[in-house]
Write a structure and sequence with these properties.
Blueprint: H1 12-15, H2 39-65, E1 71-78, H3 84-91, E2 100-104, H4 110-113, H5 119-123, E3 131-135, H6 140-147, H7 153-157, H8 159-172, E4 175-183, H9 186-198, H10 208-214, H11 217-231, E5 238-242, H12 246-263, H13 275-283, H14 288-315, H15 328-375
């Protein structure tokens, strides 16, 4: 699956997934699991993935526009300064804003408190074709509510199972659920909070509650551990992201989102009309000059489409683990199969290109003939 150039030695979906034996107490928040590169490598990879992620998001959006049911929901949790806002700004800024639905969940309003705790969450779910991002989420009702004793234990205890059923229903209805927990160390959080106090342009982010929350650090760690143990499921696993290095957390989330969307096998919607027929109708209302301009663009247009399709296909075999962790022969066979598919797609596109150019050349001749007759008054 050759990907030595990327910096990833292991698929971050494997390296960061919270499994039954996960221990937050032993978790190294300054580590960079599965990534062998440096900060500059992580940032460069993020920019590289941006092009691909944008392509995948557009495919998902297009699918939703023609009646598709699929969407993606990214749940982002973490204590203050963990980098939740940075994930939204840096990762989601790489895709078209109209394809993203962002919601931040603070303390519930009076109206929200009158309803079931999932009521406000359901109302914010992404529509088909969208990537939804929750900055905090329904998990506040088993984190803050638990730590601050805002509801009796028997109330928040049953919510773990309710959340699991809720997320299973989402997945069954076509929503891919990705849950990211940004785990910053207590020392690093203190440094980041102090920076907010030092900088006049950052003080607006600071609140006295930040200090009070730090006083409940251990209680929050216990609450998060319970979340991972009880709600990291096969259909909606938690990815626990070391957050002391912001560049790493952003690179990891970008990679997980990108690879997950590749696995969705997103294609372009196929119209129920023939492009050659539609080209005939459109050309009847175009001048020969405009048609010549279109003809000159034909090759570049098709080559761009080929390059984009090929880039997505190649990425399907991009995540490479260390030598010895996978069967090399199997990996090579998978890569050859993917490249063979790309080659077949290219051949099909170029065959259509030849037909398209021939049709456009004929349409130009017809337009010139029409214009000649019009000038002659016939």
């Amino acid at each position: 699956m050759g990907k030595g150039h990327s910096g990833w030695t292991e698929d971050p979906r494997d390296a960061l997934r919270a499994r039954p034996d996960f221990s937050l107490e032993e978790f190294d928040r300054g580590a960079t699991p599965g990534f062998r590169g440096r900060k500059s490598d992580g940032k460069a990879l993020g920019r590289q993935r941006g092009t691909l992620l944008s392509e995948l998001q557009e495919r998902l959006f297009a699918e939703g526009r023609i009646g598709g049911s699929r969407s993606v929901l990214c749940v982002v949790q973490g204590l203050d300064t963990a980098g939740k806002g940075g994930v939204t700004r840096h990762v989601m800024s790489m895709v078209d804003p109209q394809g993203v639905a962002l919601h931040s969940f603070g303390p519930p309003t009076e109206e929200e408190l009158k309803h079931h705790f999932l009521w406000r969450i359901r109302r914010a779910l992404p529509r088909p074709g969208l990537i939804g991002v929750f900055d905090r989420s329904h998990y506040e009702d088993v984190l803050v509510v638990r730590v601050d004793d805002l509801a009796p234990r028997d109330v928040w205890e049953q919510r773990y199972d309710e959340i699991n059923r809720f997320e299973k229903d989402l997945v069954d209805c076509g929503t891919v659920v990705l849950k990211f927990a940004l785990m910053v160390s207590q020392d690093e959080q203190g440094v980041r909070l102090m920076e907010r106090l030092d900088r006049p342009d950052k003080r607006w982010k600071f609140s006295g509650n930040d200090v009070r929350t730090r006083g409940k650090w251990n209680a929050y760690q216990e609450a998060y551990q319970a979340v991972f143990e009880r709600t990291s499921t096969d259909w909606a696993p938690w990815y626990v992201i070391p957050a002391d290095h912001k560049w790493y957390s952003r690179a990891a989330i970008t990679e997980i989102l990108t690879q997950t969307m590749i696995d969705m096998d997103l294609g372009w919607p196929q119209p129920d009309w023939d492009p050659f027929d539609m080209r005939e109708e459109l050309a009847a209302e175009m001048s020969s000059r405009a048609l010549k301009a279109s003809l000159s663009d034909t090759v570049d247009n098709v080559k761009s489409a080929i390059a984009e399709d090929a880039s997505v296909q190649r990425e399907e075999v991009e995540v490479q683990v260390e030598d010895g962790d996978v069967d090399g022969a199997s990996a090579k066979a998978e890569e050859r199969a993917a490249l063979a598919e790309v080659t077949a797609q290219k051949a099909q596109r170029f065959a259509e290109l030849t037909r398209t150019r021939q049709q456009k050349e004929r349409l130009v001749e017809q337009a010139e003939a029409r214009e000649t007759l019009a000038r002659e008054g016939r």
